[in-house]
Design brief:
Elements: H1 2-29, E1 39-51, E2 54-67, E3 74-76, E4 83-86, E5 90-94, E6 103-105, E7 111-114, E8 122-126, E9 132-137, E10 148-150, E11 152-154, E12 156-157, E13 164-170, H2 187-190, E14 207-214, E15 229-238, E16 244-250, E17 276-284, E18 290-296, E19 322-326, E20 335-340, E21 343-345, E22 349-351, E23 388-394, E24 400-406, H3 413-424, E25 426-431, E26 434-439, E27 448-455, E28 480-481, E29 487-489, E30 502-508, E31 514-521, E32 526-531, E33 536-542, E34 544-546, E35 553-557, E36 560-563, E37 571-573, E38 582-585, E39 587-589, H4 595-630
Parallel strand pairs: 13-20
Antiparallel strand pairs: 1-2, 3-39, 4-38, 5-6, 5-9, 5-34, 6-36, 7-8, 8-11, 9-10, 9-33, 12-31, 13-30, 14-15, 15-16, 16-17, 17-18, 19-20, 21-29, 22-26, 22-28, 23-24, 23-27, 25-26, 31-32, 32-33, 34-37, 35-36
Helix pairs in contact: 1-4
């Protein structure tokens, strides 16, 4: 029995070494296969027979063939669609015959192929075997950018409508150009959109500038058809008020197809206001700096009425610039563009009606560092410990707010300001002795202090005790809104000096169509297309998958894996996130096969095979001797 068992032990060893040699040979064969992951043979002994307290083995068996998912070296290529991952994670791909991505790969030798679906002018990113690489599409005309799908890269960057216009200029400040006070003529009165040949006479404005803007994209138009641009002309004219200039943003009245508030389109055959897109007034300080802007929409009849509020525009909370609508193609929705004169709006500020002083003699004004025992009002009444100052009003977003501060001589005015900032969601400071609260956002603001009241520690008010200090304002007074200098200059800006009017800088952000010339992939897997129109447009982001148990992945050839139940549920994410590596292009991951180690395995496997074969031949010789003895 024992002698016969040696045959089975030997043959199991021969078979096991044959299997190991097969795995090693497969590793060596794929030493140059992109992203190939080396296999590792693991054996287990066969334990079947127990003779008393002695266990007798019955050879060896194949326990498992594992896979090493360590990173391979990255090799550079000259192909933009070659991509690689450094660190954990797999590209997700969808086979052509599948409805969802159920295959994973580390091999990033991808291609761009013509998209056969509904998205116009697009490529799909596919593997060498035609599987669709998955990601978030950020520029497609359909589908949500948060939905995983076949990656699309636009072969043609569509025309992009203008959404920002910048004008930096000097508008001459010349008293001789001012309109007569008794009978001023405004630009919107001078404009006549019905006269498409000459909607405004040259004598009715002081200066004009023109630039071209782009309308919305129409991807059904062939690339060979040039992108369409439209002329935008801005007229400037002095008003009857010093340091003030009006402006009118216009287009060709015959092309104006804007939808009015009532839903009808502007028509140059009947509408005086056709082609007049925006009317505004620029106010300048005495030194020529832009201090305020007001804007109005021009209705179809051309009658703006600056004294009213019907067409007056306001900047919504958080908005920095006024905008105007335009529509040249009759689309169901108007396009819109902001207009910047190079000056950044300041947030609204409210100021106390009176200052506070740093001594009973009112010889100096307080600051944020002043201690309360030195603070007094304009009458010389000094603040006392225990006095209360109550402010009521609203925050910038209209929320009602109230704060009562109790004077503490161990604190400074800065402690009072810090609490005000927390309660009124603003910044608080002292300017020329006055309390100033400034909103944290530009645009429309409801920040207000509707009343400031004072009382002493005993609850008395200035009505019953005139000695109570009424700092920052008398009892129940309100704060005033700062209307001047609502704009701050930063770099190149619009001015009104005595020098002749001239353009300093003008631009718009629309652009025409462009062909795809190259792509780039950043470390987070964002795929950016580089187009012949000079635009770099982010097209998509790679979506990666990872698994808790990588040994549960099963190779199905073509460098692809599918997940078995042992792998667990796929974790979905993007490059650079936790549990995922980083991405790059113009590179491919090489095989992680260690050829030196594999050669050592070949030698050791060969020797083990010879040893097991020798045990078979030795057992055979012994068995033959035994037969001879029986004979």
């Amino acid at each position: 029995m024992d002698l016969l068992a040696s045959f089975y032990n030997g043959i199991s060893g021969v078979n096991a070494m044959s299997q190991k040699l097969n795995v090693t040979a497969n590793n060596v064969a794929n030493v140059n296969t992109n992203s190939f992951k080396t296999s590792q043979t693991q054996f287990a002994d066969i334990f079947e027979t127990t003779l008393g307290s002695i266990s007798v083995g019955h050879g060896v068996q194949l326990g498992n063939i594992g896979t090493s998912f360590s990173d391979g070296m990255l090799g550079t290529t000259g192909k933009a669609t070659d991509m690689a991952l450094s660190g954990p994670g797999f590209f997700m791909v969808r086979p052509p015959d599948a409805t969802m991505a159920n295959t994973y790969t580390r091999s990033g030798n991808f291609d761009l192929v013509n998209h056969l679906g509904a998205e116009p002018n697009a490529y799909n990113l596919t593997t060498q075997t035609g599987q669709f690489v998955q990601g978030y599409n950020l520029s497609a005309s359909s589908g949500l950018p948060t939905t995983v799908g076949d990656i699309l890269v636009k072969s043609i960057a569509p025309q992009s409508a203008t959404s920002q216009v910048q004008l930096m200029l000097n508008i001459q400040n010349n008293p001789a150009l001012q309109e007569p006070t008794a009978s001023p003529i405004t630009l919107f009165d001078s404009w006549n959109g019905i006269d498409t040949a000459q909607p405004i006479a040259a004598s009715n404005y002081d200066f004009k500038t023109a630039l071209k803007i782009y309308g919305p994209a129409d991807e059904t138009i062939p690339f060979s058809t040039p992108s369409t641009t439209y002329d935008l002309t801005v007229y400037f004219d002095a008003t009857a008020n010093p340091n003030e200039q009006e402006f009118l943003v216009t287009c060709n009245p015959a092309l104006d197809q804007r939808l009015s508030t009532g839903g009808t389109r502007y028509d140059s055959a009947t509408d005086k206001g056709a082609g007049a897109l925006l009317y505004g007034v620029l106010s300048f300080s005495n030194n020529g700096d832009l201090s305020n802007i007001q804007c109005w929409n021009v209705p179809p009849d051309g009658n703006v009425d600056p004294a009213g509020v019907t067409n007056l525009l306001t900047l919504a909370r958080g908005e920095s610039y006024y905008s105007f609508d335009f529509n040249f193609t009759g689309t169901p929705v108007n396009n819109s563009s902001t207009l910047s004169f190079g000056n950044t709006p300041k947030p609204l500020a409210v100021v106390s009606p009176a200052p506070a002083f740093s001594s009973a003699t009112t010889s100096g004004l307080i600051s944020a560092t002043s201690t309360w025992n030195t603070v007094s009002d304009s009458l010389g009444n000094t603040v006392q410990a225990g006095d209360t100052i109550t402010l009521q009003g609203t925050t910038g977003d209209g929320t009602a707010a109230s704060y009562t501060y109790t004077v503490n001589f161990s604190q400074t005015v800065a402690d009072f300001l810090a609490e005000l900032e927390a309660q009124f969601a603003c910044t608080a400071g002292i300017t020329n002795g006055r309390l100033t609260l400034t909103d944290t956002q530009v645009g429309e603001s409801q920040l207000a202090i509707s009343s400031i009241t004072h009382a002493n520690a005993g609850g008395a008010t200035p009505l019953t005790d005139p000695a109570i200090a009424q700092i920052f304002g008398n009892q129940n007074s309100t704060f005033t809104v700062e209307l001047e200098d609502r704009y701050q200059s930063a770099g190149l800006t619009t001015t009104s000096y005595a020098t002749p009017s001239s353009i300093l800088y003008q631009s718009q952000n629309g652009y025409g169509k462009g062909r795809l010339q190259d792509i780039s992939v950043d470390s987070q897997g964002f795929i950016t297309g580089q187009y012949s129109n000079g635009q770099n447009i982010t097209q998509a982001q790679l979506v990666l998958a990872n698994f808790m148990n990588l040994q549960g992945l099963r190779s199905v050839g073509d460098n692809n894996f599918v997940a078995s139940d042992e792998a667990g549920i796929a974790m979905i994410g993007t490059a650079g996130e936790p549990s995922f590596g980083t991405a790059t292009n113009y590179t491919l991951e090489m095989s992680n096969v260690d050829i030196g180690r594999e050669m050592v395995d070949v030698i050791t496997t060969q020797r083990a095979f010879q040893a097991n074969a020798k045990s078979l031949s030795t057992a055979d010789e012994m068995y033959e001797k035994l037969i001879q003895m029986i004979r």
